[in-house]
Each structure stands twice: as structure tokens, then as C-alpha cells.
Amino acid sequence: MKPIFIIVIVFLSQFSFAQDDLRLKIYRENEGKSYFIYADNEEFAPISLEFSYTASNMNSSLSNKSIIIIPANSKKFLITELNSIDTKKGTSFKYDVFYVFGNVNTKNSESSFAYSLPFAKNKKYLVYQGYNGNFSHQNANSIDFSLQTGNEVYAARDGKVVQVVTQNNQNCTTKDCAKFNNKILILHNDGTFAEYVHLKQNGSVVKIGDEISQGQLIGYSGNTGWSKGPHLHFSVFTNKIDGGRNYIKTKFKINGTPNPVYLEEKKWYSRSL
Q1: What is the pLDDT of residues 114-127, one digit of tens each?
Q2: Range of the structural domain that residue 182 is part of
Q3: Most buried pick, 25, 161, 206, 216, via CB within 10 A?
Q4: Residue 13 has what pLDDT?
Q5: Percentage of the chain with pLDDT > 90?
Q6: Is residue 221 one of the residues assigned to a domain?
Q7: Nearest to 96 by CA among 13, 36, 4
């Protein structure tokens, strides 16, 4: 009897604000009696993938429920090699993959990095929703700045642009509109992400793959997506393999204070660098 080989693929991808299609391709090839499952990651950030399976008369070089990190811009990255245990018997192999943006093994302690305020010098803005705010920051260390539509947005830290969404032009005050969030996502060299959200339509001046310096103009604020008024939403985080996020408290350099500080809700701040 010839071996019977069955593959079932279930793709799941979750984000806190929107469902995003990642440029990840998973496929299999065979060489003789061995089968190989590969991944092509076309993103400019690594992707974490959890691999779980059930098998009959087959073994896998990757253990069940393993989490692997697929490097950015990688081709034919080997996930697992499959082989029959008894070549005289039928075989089956079914697997699921759950994947998220970034390296889920990144350490998530409070950041010691001194961030720059994400707006122009000589401007002063209100933090009208701070960490764990009541409207949309429950259990999230995120900050909303009172930028108006068209105000300049600057990078708070060096990094690489890994996602840009700017085509949307609508908003509402319920979570249903999160899918319309215009945003820029920047990957830092420590594996964390910074997210700049609610940009105006076509409000990005950077593109995916760009290397960004702290204090560089990246776009323009707006009122898109899950929003009840013009503002800039900023957060630093890493993704969890279950689709959740680890939000990281960030300190900022501000005018009038020599040391970086945590920002407080309902206070006004101006940029020092």
C-alpha cells in the first residue's frame, strides 16, 4: 500500500485593533519519502508561529505545539521535516498554525529607553487618555495625545517601518470601527513595536521597509477608525502568540525636566528633543 499523506492548514491571525493579512506563505514539498513544510515571510519583521499537529504513522522534526520565529524577508524557511514511521502502512498528518507579527520571545520589562514625544518641537499637547484609560485603553499602557487633523507626527524612537495603513477615511466611537484605523507600525531594535494610530487618510510620508530616526517626520494625525475625535494614539508593545499584546510603559524626554518621565493623563507636555 502506498503511503497516504493528508495536509489540513488552518490560518489564524489576531491583532488588538484590526485583522491584518500578513505576507506569510506556508507550503510543503517532498523529496523521496520525506516531506518538508516551509514558510516564506515577505514582511520586514519576524513572524512567530505556533505549530500543532496530529499524526498517524508519521513523525515530525518539530515538536507538537512548538513556537518558532520566522525571520523577516526569509524564503523557504524550514518549519518541519516529516517522515513515515512504517513505510508499509498508511499515513496521515494534520496541522494547525497560529501566527502573529514579531518575536513573541522578546523580553517585556518596562522600557528604560528615553522616548521623544511624537509631535513637533515648540508644540504643546494634552494627554487626554493615559495608561489604562476608560474609553479604549483598558488594561493597556497606551497614550492619546490631543493632536488635531493634519498635525505632524514624528518618530519617538529609531526603527524600521513594518506596516503602513492610510487608505481609510471614516471613524466611529465603537470598537467596530477599529478596522478603519490608519496607522504606522515601527519595529525597534529590541524587538518591540511602536504604533501611531488614527492618522488622516493618505497621512503617511514613510513606506514599509524605511529606516526611521528618532524625531523624523513620519505622517499626519487624523480621526480615523475607533475614535471620538482627532488625536494620536501611541503605544509600545510586543505581541503574544495568542493574539494579545504585552504593553510596555515608556518614559519621555520633556521640556522643563532633565530626566525622562512617565506621562500623566490630563497634563500638557512639550517636546525637548
Answers
A1: 999 999 998 999 99
A2: 114-270
A3: 161
A4: 28
A5: 73
A6: yes
A7: 13
**Domain for residue 49, yes or no?**
yes
**63 touches 53 (CB < 8 A):** no
Give yes or no: residues 66 and 168 share one domain: no
The answer to the question of residue 6 being in a domain is: no
- Residues 119, 89 share a domain: no
- Residue-wise pLDDT for 205-224, tens only, equals 999 999 999 999 999 999 99
Q: What is the mean pLDDT of the chain?
A: 88
Collapse the DSSP code of 169 into the 3-class scheme (helix H, G, I; strand E, B; otherwise coil) and give the result: coil
Please say whether the beta carbons of 49 and 39 come within 8 A.
yes
Task: State the number of CA atoms in the 13 A half-sphere of 31 facing the CB.
Answer: 3
60-76, pLDDT tens digit by residue? 999 999 999 999 999 99
- Give dist(CA 86, CA 174) in Å, integer: 56
The reply to whether 86 and 119 lie within a common domain is no
